[in-house]
């Protein structure tokens, strides 16, 4: 399957078009970055207050990590764009932090402070993975950025129990050339890693990463961001499944679903 054009090609095309006055205002506004990333956080009923706090704190700490800063700066353009959404039931999704460009330690630290200050969007709700995917994919439209890679990073501790079929939502996302990665918490469902590997993830380099419980989440999301942003290369041939406790991130590698 052909991937997205290289980011160098995209950036060069934009610059040439700008010089020639060939782009409309709506296109000129798009800023080239190495990656567009939607972080989709589970806020359903199965996530209690303490577990939600561990998610938010762990995500904030990850964006304060110097290794993550190096990964962001290590791409061809040295910047990424990130948005944070929360999700629960079929009609329960909310943009907690709109698209933000990160280009170094200062921007990442400020972004981390925004994450740390978040309040929970939903007090109750069931689990609609398909709704989360549909909503996350829509965030890439007219977001002001252009990148060679677009990725949805969805976290969850449960299976779908509301909404349209996951495979239909997944196919719609993949048709837009958007990759779906997942971080699962195995505290209540030990086989959740396989569920997401078989039914949810897909696209270029897709993978699942697992944490045994919420206290493991901070390290898991840090490692996941490093892999997604690019400090740890991902083969074009496929993704993999790796459990945080007991297995390295590339253990049990297998191609993502077609």
UniProtKB/TrEMBL annotation:
<feature type="domain" description="VWFA">
    <location>
        <begin position="36"/>
        <end position="229"/>
    </location>
</feature>
<protein>
    <recommendedName>
        <fullName>VWFA domain-containing protein</fullName>
    </recommendedName>
</protein>
<dbReference type="InterPro" id="IPR002035">
    <property type="entry name" value="VWF_A"/>
</dbReference>
<dbReference type="InterPro" id="IPR036465">
    <property type="entry name" value="vWFA_dom_sf"/>
</dbReference>
<dbReference type="InterPro" id="IPR010607">
    <property type="entry name" value="DUF1194"/>
</dbReference>
<dbReference type="Pfam" id="PF06707">
    <property type="entry name" value="DUF1194"/>
</dbReference>
